[in-house]
Write a structure and sequence with these properties.
The chain has 672 residues and is mainly α. The chain has helices spanning 2-52, 80-103, 110-129, 133-151, 158-189, 194-201, 218-233, 242-245, 251-259, 264-272, 274-277, 281-301, 308-328, 332-359, 377-391, 397-410, 415-444, 451-454, 462-487, 507-510, 515-538, 540-548, 550-560, 565-597, 599-616, 621-640, 643-649, 651-671; strands spanning 57-67, 70-78, 208-211, 214-217. Helices cover 75% and strands 4% of the residues. Strand 3 and strand 4 form a beta hairpin. The termini are far apart.
Length: 672
């Protein structure tokens, strides 16, 4: 049963990709949906047996790698963390598969698309079930590859090509740090198995390593490098710019990436590596700062985005910031709780946005929509549920996890904890504002699009609305029913999956913080929603006048252009790198030193000396006699002055002669 969850998605992907031409769109869809439904069903059984019945399972598979002292098998770890992730990944992937059969039905390459989706899910399953870092890295790179294929699915579109390359390159930067971290783990722990590494982590707490001319703490360095990998995959500030551009792929891809697979891998890595992170308070502080800044930055950027999918994408980036700074505050269970809740309502939001885009003939600009509440009432209701849950309104799924993250952060009673709390509250205000703005511009405002398109909008077919209805249920109730099991006091759900030191545990203190602090995030959310609704309903002229104002126009441009991160990267970093690569690396090093000191320079040097020697062959006897006499005299003089011994003993003199000869020859070659 356990291994079937891993094998079945790979099998479905292979059948769809290898025999899609013969199976056709219908047969391919049937096979991939059946494979994902089977994996989801088995995942529910695993969740009951492992998570609810506290019976973790370890499976050592076939031999994989053997090199000197490095030996590893295919191993699979099914504990509570893995069981919870499997349920999230497989169920949401199954619903996305069902949705995709209708959304992509017009595409002639549907079998290829379904194959990629199943392969994406299969690699994510490998990542969460691995029992060692090298196997986890295999799944990590697999989801990176398949994300490139899915974002670039419509490969004839230039923007899709650019977005896929951007996602691949930025993820490679994070993967480079993760790879170095894995190398360091093996170098000092002599193992990559989770159980061995975590058992030895406390013993190596004070070990120092020499890294880039500095003596640094081993576990601190490993924790930072693992977090660099998480920054790339989970789109934290600095390496976040690929995530909004990934919207160039089909909408089901966006739903799968943002809800259950790619971006959640970084948070999963942090939670899985909790025994390493707990031994370095400095790493936890860095994680807290990055997560809080990402939540604030992404929420502020989403305020004035006009693309429907990009607004939801920036909300994903912001919610990932909440999860990351929860891990930085050692609230790993709360971070995973928010990951699980977020997966359901974010999938609901993206698939509902896809239904809207499908209904308005692929238009994504919210300014060209409006008035859709009457024509697509079911999709409107689904967007409301997803947005209210995203805003963290009371008694919806998002409320139970996001507010608890802020409460436990405030309960840490430290400067960084309060820093993350207040930035999180500000992000809650911005989230409510842009969520309400999305609802108003898309559904409640006066129609602003083309009449022939808006007049023909209608509800999506059953294959698209059924997944929305299924996702709406956990988006409302799953947080309430699972809160005590996942984050409750004294819960035994996690077992040994997560390690938190007693001095870092703040769940108890969170119960005794002032009531006003507990209600503050809800107040900010309600205030942001009410402010956006009042402004866009009654004060639209105020918005227009603000855009005409110099300061307002600058602020709007700053936020709409995403804090100019892309401009900084393109014009300051990349342009200078390209200039250096052409002017210095290519012209001076490659075409200069390498060519002059390499084969071409050697060829020219031999040719010049051969030509000079050829001129000495004049045929005159008196010139030959002069050369013989001069050579004999030079030989006698050198022998007398011990010239050769001087060359051997005094290396400085030899070096001066060689450099002089090289400079003279190089000058002759250049003149030639």
């Amino acid at each position: 049963m356990y291994l079937s969850i891993i094998i079945i998605p790979f099998l479905g992907s292979c059948l769809a990709g290898g025999f899609g031409r013969y199976l056709g769109p219908y047969g391919t869809s049937l096979i991939t949906i059946f494979s994902m439904a089977s994996a989801a069903t088995l995942s529910c059984f695993v969740f009951y047996e492992v998570g609810l019945s506290s019976c973790p399972c370890y499976i050592k598979g076939i031999f994989w790698i053997s090199s000197e002292y490095f030996y590893t098998n295919w191993g699979f770890l099914f504990d509570s963390l893995t069981a919870l992730m499997l349920v999230i990944v497989t169920i949401i992937s199954m619903l996305v598969h069902i949705y995709s059969t209708e959304y992509m039905s017009h595409d002639p390459c549907l079998p290829r698309f379904m194959s990629y989706l199943s392969l994406f899910t299969a690699f994510m399953v490998v990542l969460v079930t691995a029992d060692n870092y090298i196997q986890m890295f295999f799944g990590w790179e697999g989801i990176g590859l398949t994300s490139f294929l899915l974002i670039n699915f419509w490969f004839t579109r230039l923007q899709a090509n650019k977005a896929a390359i951007k996602a691949m390159l930025l993820n490679r930067l994070g993967d480079f740090g993760l790879a170095i971290g894995i190398f360091l783990i093996y170098l000092h722990f002599q193992s990559l198995d989770y159980d061995s590494v975590f058992a030895l982590s406390s013993l190596l707490e004070s070990r120092k390593v020499f890294f880039f001319l500095f003596d640094v703490n081993l576990l601190g360095l490993v924790g930072i490098l693992l977090f660099v990998g998480a920054i790339g995959k989970s789109a934290q500030i600095g390496l976040h710019t690929w995530l909004p551009d990934a919207m160039e792929g089909p909408t089901p891809v966006s739903a799968l990436i943002h809800a259950a697979t790619l971006v959640t891998a970084g948070v999963f890595l942090l939670v899985r590596s909790s025994p390493i992170l707990e031994n370095s308070q400095q790493v936890l502080s860095v994680i807290t700062v990055f997560g809080a800044l990402t939540a604030f930055f992404s929420a502020s950027t989403g305020l004035f985005q006009n693309d429907l999918k990009r607004v939801i994408a920036y909300s994903t980036c912001s919610q990932l910031g909440y999860m990351v700074f929860a891990c930085g505050a050692s609230n790993y269970a709360t971070g995973i709780f928010h990951l699980a809740n977020h997966a359901f309502f974010k999938a609901l939001l993206f698939l509902s946005a896809g239904a809207v885009i499908h209904g308005v003939k692929d238009e994504q600009d919210m300014r060209k929509m409006g008035g859709l509440a009457k024509t697509v009432p079911f999709t409107y209701g689904m967007i409301l549920i997803g947005s209210f849950s995203l805003m963290g309104l009371p008694f919806l799924t998002g409320y139970y996890s996001k507010d608890f993250i802020l409460e436990t952060s405030y309960a840490k009673h430290g400067i960084l904890a309060h820093f993350s709390f207040w930035l999180g509250c500000a992000a809650a205000f911005f989230t409510a504002f842009y969520s309400t703005r999305l609802i108003f511009l898309t559904f409640l405002s006066e129609p602003n699009g083309f009449r022939p398109i808006l007049s023909k909008t209608h509800e999506s077919p059953t294959k698209m609305t059924l997944p929305l209805g299924v996702l709406a249920v956990p988006s409302i109730f799953i947080g309430y029913f699972t809160q005590d099991m996942i984050t409750g006091m004294g819960t035994t759900f996690w077992g040994n999956s997560i390690q938190t030191f007693p001095e870092n545990f703040s769940n108890t203190d969170a119960e005794f913080i002032p009531l006003g602090i507990k209600l503050l995030p809800v107040f900010f959310s309600l205030l942001g929603g009410a402010f956006a609704f009042s402004v866009y309903t009654y004060k639209q002229r105020l918005l227009y006048s603000l855009k005409l104002n110099l300061l307002g126009r600058k602020l709007y441009t700053f936020l709409n252009r995403k804090w100019f991160f892309d401009k900084i990267y393109n014009e300051i970093l990349l342009q200078n790198v390209l200039i250096f690569g052409y002017s210095v690396s290519f012209k001076i090093l490659d075409r200069g030193m390498v060519e002059f000191l390499g084969p071409r320079g050697l060829t020219l040097l031999i040719h010049l000396h051969a030509s000079a020697m050829q001129k000495l062959q004049t045929g005159y006897v008196y010139q030959y006699a002069f050369f013989i006499f001069a050579g004999t005299a030079l030989t006698i003089t050198a022998t007398t002055m011990k010239f050769y011994s001087l060359l051997v003993v005094d290396y400085k003199f030899t070096a001066v002669i060689l450099v002089g000869l090289a400079a003279f020859n190089l000058q002759r070659i250049i003149k030639k």
